[in-house]
Amino acid sequence: MTDVTEGEAPAPAAAVDWAAVRAEYEAGEELVREIIVRHGITRSQLDWRSRREAWATRQRGVRVDRGAMVGRLFRLLDRQTLAMEKMMSDEPDREMAALGKLVTTLEKLIEIDERTARKAPRRQSVDAEGLRRKLAERIDRLVKD
After folding, report:
1. On the CB side of 87, how many CA atoms lie within 13 Å of its CA?
2. In whole angstroms, what is the distance from residue 35 CA to residue 63 CA?
3. Which pLDDT score, from 0 to 100, does residue 97 have?
4. Nearest 5°: CA angle at 35, between 57 and 55?
5. Which of 71, 74, 79, 131 is the most exposed place for a label (fewest CB within 10 A)?
6. pTM value?
7. How many helices (H) and strands (E) does the chain have?
8. Which helix H or strand E contains 101, and what residues bound it?
9. In the chain, what are the domain boundaries?
């Protein structure tokens, strides 16, 4: 099976600008599919050439939106705090250890969020700020109980 569009034959190896293909492939900014269609080559041709010439490995996966990830982590921490509130037990030492881990996690998230905000334009949503405030209030309540 080839990865070029239907009805198109792969380009002869000599007609392909392999330096351009390599540069686009290693940059990792486009899908491999886009590169092979643009240059009229098959996926197997690209794979063979990249292995033979030891091209740099592309980053696997999707680029991460750090702001969105931090927001998801805040929401996860919020859910964990809620679950902890519901399961208050007769084991205060265990609860305090878990609470300590939650506080450490919150501090790390705040630090990551602040670093991310310094690198990029301010995009933090009110939602993340509200979650941070809510988590701090819940942790304070848990410590006082």
Report:
1. 12
2. 18
3. 77
4. 25
5. 79
6. 0.37
7. 6, 0
8. helix 92-119
9. 1-62, 66-144
